[in-house]
Amino acid sequence: MLFRPTLRHTARTYRWQCTRTNSTFVKPSQFGQPLHPSHPHLVKDGELTPGIHADEYESRRRALMEGLPPNSLVICAAAKVKYMSGRTYKFRQGSDFLYLSGLLEPSAAFLLRSSPSTPRGYTYSIFHHFHTPSQALWDGPRTNDITLHDLFGADDVCPIDELPRALKKALRDADYVYVDQPQETRRTRKSGSAWKALLEHLAPASLADAKADLLSALSDLGARSGKIRPLAPEVGRLRAIKSPAEQKIMRAAADVSAHAHTKTMRFAQPGMSEHVLAAHFEYLCAREWSQRPAYVPVVASGPNALTIHYTANDQLIREDELVLIDAGCELDGYASDITRTFPASGRFTPAQAELYSAVLAAQKRLVSLSNASAGYSLYQLHTESVHLLADELRAIGFNLDRSSVGLMAELYPHFVGHPVGIDLHESSHFDRDAPLKPGMVITIEPGIYVPPRPHYPKHFHNIGIRIEDEVLVGETYPTVLSVNAPKEVADVEGACTGALGLEPL
Predict the structure, then answer these.
(1) Which Gene3D superfamilies is this protein grouped with (predicted)?
(2) What is the pLDDT of residues 168-200, one digit of tens each?
């Protein structure tokens, strides 16, 4: 029996739909991001971003502050607007800033200060840039102070150019300061230039004298060992475990991408360019409310699949080649990450099917081990993936030594997976040696890439296969979020030939 994907969790059903097309809403929006009054089809009442209620953002901030030493100060800045050819890219908020605030605007920052005497145990101050009428004419509105106080939960709302003066006092009073350097300056060896870069990142529009005062305060702090600490590891600890609301969004994002993978299999034909499949995939995701691709898609036909991060996507697909597509959408702030490999002609050749089945057998076993009760860490899963792939390859004629060194060096040179969430790779502070915990979302993506070397079976030369699923770790069993992307041989062929009943558009 052929696998038939069920689409009950796609964005169309995940979205909270208005009951009438003429439902009351504000147009044009008076806010700097979609909120319920202006976008009731996207955001429920009380939510700051689609699917995440203001109360959840509050609980995240509280959990962060409760995990820090007494009298701590947290400083977090919004992402900067990025430019190409003199025009802006679509803005994407900094991941930690988004996780803690839900605010989707640039030119903003917030401070969290320990305050045991207050009901929630901390104070929350937002600094932002409110557009003048002239600026709003060109770039639209920004969220007003009343909304930032009443809906976003800020105790204080101030103009961004007041941040240096507020910081100077806050820094003087705090015992510990949690802040991250801008990404582009974290490797600098000159502390003075590092502080200047941090200041420019936090308050680029501030007056020179205010910047000078704050720069002096930051420099003084830098000389006091241990007072300034990185924020990202503390937030990363919280982000590693997905809440039920996050899991729902990630399931929807994975379903949108899985649906796009399945339809792109049906759409693909020999003679097409790889970039056409990439465009088709992104179009299908955008139709389901995806805001952007989670990353540049890999559409690698034939031997191009031997390049792990092949993104040129500019060659023609030949008859009887395999096509490897590594692609996923970003939906409501959360990434999806799925890889499927399928035959351009609709049917695997015997050699392709044999190698594909070997990778699939290993991948399915690894997915089954992705639960907390199994006790595996991500690193142990990788070690297991090497053993499983080596056994599968030996069974189909590969002459591999017992150490599997050749396998890891050339046939399988990448890691088995990574955590995924707001960022595609939420692994900068993820402990690969720690056992998996319920609520984590990881990828499981073993692959085999066979170069034309004489010591490998010739009928497998120039074949690259990777099969990647998103997996929600449970206590006793995993949940495959990307389950609606077919991966069994018969189901993949059924998707390619139309036997699953899906059309390419």
Answers:
(1) Creatinase/methionine aminopeptidase superfamily, Creatinase/prolidase N-terminal domain
(2) 888 888 999 998 865 544 444 444 455 556 666
